[in-house]
Batch of 2 targets.
Target 1
Amino acid sequence: MIKRKLLYLLVLVTTAAGAQQLPHFSQYMINDYVMNPAIGGSRDYVEGKSNNRYQWVGITDAPRTYVLSLQGPTKNRKMGIGGYLYTDITGPTRRTGVDLSYSYHIKVSEKIKLSFGVAGGLLQFAVDGSKINLRDEGDFALSNGLQSVIVPDFSAGFYLYSEKFYVGASAPQMLRSRLQFFDYPTSSRLSEHYYAMAGYHLKITEDFEFEPSALVKFVNPAPVQYDIGGRFNYKQRVWIGGAYRNLDAFTGLVGFTWKNLLFGYSYDFTTSNLKNYSTGTHEVMIGVKFAKKEQPEPSASFN
């Protein structure tokens, strides 16, 4: 019985380690920094953002993700520093991490810059035994306590950008740290992910702008997943848009800025078989821009 319960624990860990581990964000084009450390410091202001995602509402123990980030440039605009804290909860499992980032920005031409960034920190993966019903209540392998492991984390990326376009790529979880509970050996590891992103700011009129964007995600052995979408901006103050994520959902998103505050909301219409059990996914974003009063309003959007 002990071996059977231990196997169940390893299944939990291996499931998290062998597929898409990192959470999805439907508003990836707005809070892109948490996906690529090279984006830190690419704008002329310091910004803080909070993402709150409630996935597959209606399904018990469905994923819930909370992210808080802060990043900005140094005084000479050649470097960017920042960090983010996140928690991803799915059933009895929880991932909590903190990362600090550094980026260096190089001027390629008068209007184009290239940055390279790295981020490192710690990740805690935990299993709450009190949320698992055991046939053998005396099994020490999965007691009613919280079992956890803390491992180092590291990611890197690059970002080529201007006021009109951006292209970037990043690789989170490059260390592929081993996840081991108790004193039992296990082959479960964090999987290295690969992200590629691109977007363009297309000016339609003096007040309207359209921003198409794309995000491609890959982690072995899961199939390649991509997000393709876009949003219309009105005077860089109000936006509305949509996106499609293959194998998952269609997304609608809206948002606005008021003074130095940002508010965004997205809703995912599930396209997989989970649509028979879920009413969809909600994601709320709140942001604040810390800019000096004498700074001019940035020509690029608050994203």
Target 2
Amino acid sequence: MAGKALYIGPRLKRVRRDLRLTQADMAVDLGISPSYVALMERNQRPVTADMLVKLAAAYRIDIADLAAGEVEETAARMQAILRAPLYAGIDLPKIDIEDVAASYPGFAEALMRLHAAHEQLWLTLAEQREKGVEDVLDPVEETRHFLAQRRNYFPSLDDSASALAARLKSWADMAAHIEHVHELEVRFVPPAEMRHALRFHDFHRRRVLINARLTEDGRRFQLALQIAALEQSEAIAELVRDPGIVSDNGRTLAAQALRGYWAAALVMPYDAFLTAARRQRFDIEGLAAEFAVSFEQAAHRLTTLQKPGAAGVPFFFLRLDSGGNVSKRLDASGFPFARFGGACPLWNVHDCFARRGELLLQRIELPEGGNFVSIARSVEVRGWQHGHPRLVRAVALVCPEDYLDELAYADDLRKHERTPVGTTCRLCHRPDCAGRSAPPIGREILSDTYLRASEPFALSGE
């Protein structure tokens, strides 16, 4: 071995990472310069026999393990991967694979990670097929996809709601409209008589019962929903005859969402609400006060301002409970959380439960480099009588940071450093996250033989 020079850059780098050493640390231990360590790791300088002895002595490593053929091992792994049917028909001579393993070890590692992630995905899909999961339709996802395809904007519903909004400004106006146009009695009754429901259309007795414990904004919204059910059923049924919705449950949930959309458009007419939003610089609490609606209703309505030529800020809306369960998700911004929910504990929406009633602001940086701002606050669903618990949820509005200057929160947000947030642990490859609950797909987990890191998982590539 005395005169043999080895090019084992990736193996040397792995040893250094396992020991949690910087190149400068290793250079001190070996009596060389940090730049020389970098050159050896990039296979631009060989690791001599003398250097192997120094490495073994400094870190108590078996020389045989260090001298084992790193290039040969990498090339063999790549050859095994490239025999898969996916790569059939591609001319990949053995000598080319060995050349990549020797000259471009970083590229080889990237290919192997990508293949590992691909295999794990297909195994997951295969398991789902074995369980028959592919045949089970998720009506919630059908509805979310239906709304997202249209960026949660339905002009025909906005137009019909706006036509009535000028006359139906209060819950009393709406109750009178139901009584005169539809000949239905509107009554406000105690929660016990409602069996804790918010609204009940008693078809046979020709009356509409509203829970008397509702606040004014709650009464208005429930009466608006009733008008939507009475006057917009055909229009909504036509909209949900969408080829993307194939299940009955999906159509039911989509129709329910559109009735809510129309009710919000009646209470907060598009043009008036957009004008106020621009004047107030999208201050959610200010808009809620101006239109006598709840924080959640105002935040939800902001996601629907997507009229071509008269659009607001493209917001993503999320509502979740303290257990992390997402009960509402609407997207008009292309925010990656639209698919994966609010799983990252670093997102400020999760802090709302400890800081109830406080408006929380955050600048977000995603792993792919996208920058967003998040406005979050807790909202409370009151109990309808003694003994019924109050349910607390968290609501967040998120938009691209490009729109920061349009927001009333801009000055405060600029005081915040960006927080690195991921969409979900399985897809987030940030190695130094203490909040991680699972390793990312396709990444190697480093051993804790030499060092136990503070992060739950020590990942290769740090």
